[in-house]
Design goal:
Helices cover about 35% and strands about 20% of the residues. With about 260 residues, it is α/β, with parallel strands linked by helices. A hairpin with a 5-residue loop joins β1 and β2.
């Protein structure tokens, strides 16, 4: 077990304890939800460089479209220092947003629908390069930069198989295009449902030598927070070179050790 793996397993237990504590410490759903959002923010602050601002608020793009309230917004070091870490009224600019996360205590069908609708608003926003920007990577990487990565994070949920089936059904019922669908759904201590939308994506999950595309679930169980950071390291262009550090210390993990569905 790597040092990072051990630290994140301990952190995962602390997050679960803190989530449970919120239910007994606070009496209103809003207070419970706010406390649980703060738990995820504190976790991310521990692994992101200080130059990244992590806020709660609304995202706006240069066309004037807005996302509505998002629980966690990760802003790049190039975002203006206009976000407030102590307020829910931050206004974040799409070009400076690295990722958006909607935090849910539980993900039954109706709550899952609300989460997917919220993510849909984020995915409709457009990040536009400015004249003279230098982009590195493949054509697909450049296409992907135009949309903000959006993730659902849940404390509890039905089985991952049921959750995956519900996501497929809701995407069909709501007629959400592939490009505007959720990028991943993370369930604490259970695993992650990835949405591999294109064969050019760098995320490779294979079963018996055959690559899986579309919604792919993986049972990380107690290693879910490791998987969460690994996923963020792929969808966020971290100029700080933190991504290779995460991959180095978590390199001993194998996706063959868990259940893929």
């Amino acid at each position: 077990m790597s040092a990072l793996d051990h630290i994140l397993q301990v952190t995962s237990k602390q997050i679960r304890l803190a989530f449970t504590e919120a239910s007994t410490k606070y009496t209103t759903p809003d207070d419970i939800a706010q406390h649980r959002e703060e738990i995820i923010v504190d976790f991310l602050k521990g692994y992101f460089p200080p130059a990244y601002q992590i806020a709660k608020g609304e995202i706006i793009d240069s066309n004037g479209a807005r996302s509505g309230q998002m629980d966690v917004v990760i802003c790049t070091p190039f975002h203006p220092f206009t976000v407030s870490r102590s307020s829910s009224r931050s206004l974040c600019f799409a070009e400076g947003v690295a990722c958006a996360i909607d935090v849910k205590s539980d993900l039954p069908y109706m709550e899952l629908e609300r989460g997917l609708r919220q993510v849909w608003k984020v995915k409709k926003l457009e990040r536009k390069p400015t004249p003279g920007d230098l982009m590195c990577g493949s054509t697909y990487d450049q296409e992907r930069l135009r949309r903000i990565p959006a993730i659902l994070f849940g404390y509890e949920a039905p089985s991952l198989e049921t959750l995956k089936a519900n996501i497929i059904k809701l995407h069909e019922n709501l007629r959400i295009s592939t490009e505007e669908q959720v990028d991943a759904v993370v369930i604490l201590d259970k695993g992650i449902i990835y949405n591999i939308k294109d064969a050019r994506d760098r995320l490779m999950i294979a079963v018996s030598g055959e690559r899986r595309l579309g919604l792919v679930g993986f049972e990380w169980k107690e290693k879910t927070m490791v998987g969460f950071l690994l996923y963020l390291s792929q969808v966020i262009p971290w100029e700080t070179r933190m991504a290779p550090i995460i991959q180095l210390y978590a390199g001993a993990l194998s996706m063959e050790s868990g259940k893929v569905f």
